[in-house]
Write a structure and sequence with these properties.
The structure is a single chain. The protein has 182 residues and is of the alpha/beta class. It contains 6 helices and 6 strands; from the N terminus they run βαβαβαβαββαα. Strands 1, 2, 3, 4, 5 and 6 form a 6-stranded parallel sheet that branches. The longest helix has 21 residues. The two termini are 15 Å apart.
Length: 182
């Protein structure tokens, strides 16, 4: 099962729309997929005490990562970086088993011209530090406000093809490591 991590908790986000497009691509390819949406995080996870003891309500979110064969991180760019809630979520997950030997790939989107290059590169550093297996085909979607229809479909066939190509390749990549996840 591949887990799509929608990397923001912003209401009505473009990240969530891209996540839905990506989920449709995986489903059309017959790949088992599910979405982990940070908008659903339980409010109690943001208490400082959670660094020591996670609330039971966080377990389903942690379990989705731990049970996944691969993780697709879809991140917007906020002020030149990833959303704080995404980094906090990563920090709350069990160490080292959450990412140790787990295949991960990245999709970045932004209103600007670089398509979240900076947050994706920073996430690659974090996941590399955590010994994840990083899939090299990243997808950057610049000018996101002009890339989506009001219904949330992608206007640009080239962008859609890059997402489709990444999904096909990442599915194969995750299969290579399926028995190596710790």
């Amino acid at each position: 099962m591949i887990t799509l991590l929608s990397g923001t908790n912003r209401p009505n986000s473009n990240t969530r729309k891209i996540t839905a497009v990506v989920q449709g691509i995986y489903e059309k390819n017959g790949t088992p997929v599910r979405t982990l949406d940070l908008a659903g995080l339980p409010p109690e996870i943001f208490s400082p005490e959670c660094y020591a003891t996670k609330p039971a309500s966080f377990e389903p979110f942690s379990r989705m990562v731990l049970d996944s064969d691969g993780l697709v991180v879809i991140t917007p760019e906020y002020n030149g970086g990833m959303p704080g809630v995404l980094k906090y979520f990563i920090d709350m997950l069990p160490f080292p088993e959450s990412f140790e030997g787990r295949p991960v790939c990245f999709i970045g989107l932004s209103a600007g011209i670089w398509g979240a290059l900076r947050p994706v590169e920073h996430l690659q550093q974090i996941f590399g530090y955590r010994n994840a297996f990083i899939y090299p085909e990243r997808v950057f979607i610049p000018g996101i406000n002009n890339q989506l229809t009001p219904e949330g479909t992608i206007k640009n066939a080239e962008v859609f093809e890059r997402l489709r190509s990444q999904a096909v390749g990442f599915t194969t990549f995750t299969g290579l490591f399926k028995n190596r996840i710790k």
